[in-house]
Fold each of these.
Amino acid sequence: MVSEERTRASHRVFNAGTSIGAMLTPVVVPWINARWGWRGAFLGIGALGFVWLMFWLLIYRKPEEHPRVSRAELDYIRSDPQAAAGKIKWAALLPLRQTWAFVAGKFLTDPIWWFYLFWVPGFLQSRHGLALTRIGAPSW
């Protein structure tokens, strides 16, 4: 159960971060692009990723090394059975239903996502005269 709880918590944190990023991107990136061009947007967002990396490297500690993890918490974390780590051949993944569910999901959703991501902003600009900086609010 411990592993299941940690997995849920990790997924929730990850999904919250990606949702916040998806909400801020249509507003922030066009503004950066309008001020400093696409290179500025590319470098600015990339630099933000490196700032986050530095922050993460400064604060992250293994549970065994973290000063605020109690002995009871550490025992709770370690109570999970350790799964054997090893390499899995790609061919071994093909018969699994989970693999095909993932492939089908990507096959059905990715074209729509990339359509909206790449085609819609250009369409709104060329067809309706909506500047890239004005697309953010409706997208948000």
Amino acid sequence: MRWKEFELLEEVGLTGYERKALVTLMVHGVADAETLCRKGEVPSSKIYQAMEKLAHLGLVEIQPTRPKLYSALPGDEVVNRLVEISRHKAERFANKLRS
């Protein structure tokens, strides 16, 4: 996978590992941490924090299984959520300028 194509995800505040994890999960649909690390080139020491942030942002879902499984949302939902995050950041920026 060519990660350079997904650099736009950086604009919403995702780190490199978070971007790789999100894209890898979207390709696989459902995966455990080991798969995300291996296929997404994410160190095992970073994957859990990355997935927690992605879940917090509403970009993925965490299934409470053993081992934990992570599931991707449909692509259009991810795009809509990313647009919402970007809009919120832009509004915060505009409000700071007005202050």
Amino acid sequence: MASTAAVGMRLDAYLAQAIPGDQQGPGTDADRGGTGAGGCAAAKSKQKMSGGEAIEIEGEPHPAPLHATPEDIPLDILYEDKYLAVVNKPAE
């Protein structure tokens, strides 16, 4: 449900604010019919919001990739099998 603060905002601007990491804009799902707002089957990204609309977004989420890097640290492994690993990690 769109907040009442969305009054007068464009749909794409509201989604960019309401869903962190969302990249709505021209040529995205909002233009191709992947987003519906206010009972519309498909909404344009430039549609103005009146606040309180129900918004439905179709498709799979695309979370930002993790940027984790492995570290070469010694581990005290107490037990390990194909389902479980028990690691002794001293408090720091």
Amino acid sequence: MTADGKTVAGYYTVSQYSVNLEDVPSQIAKKLPRYPNVSATLLGRLAVSTAFQGQKLGKLLLMDALYRCLKGSKELASAGVIVDAKDAEAMAFYKKFGFIELPKIEKRLFLPMGSIEKMFA
């Protein structure tokens, strides 16, 4: 919300989710619990209003979301954060922050909670 209290500059949603361990690259999967499905957090609908693009608000929103996901993982198990990129530009944005593609699901990326912990150490 902007200072006027009326304009939405950007937003995101987070929710509990699960990822099939077979969908995660093996180098990451070997570090996760050995269950068929592993608890994760889905970061959905991260968006910045066109009027506010180019001001690093997307990065700020992503960092806020990742920090909240990390804090939440202390209460509710979460192996990492999943995002569904809407296009190649969004994929590139998430990859800059260490997200890796899940090869079996198009435009879906994953960031292990351990990587997020290192960001905020």
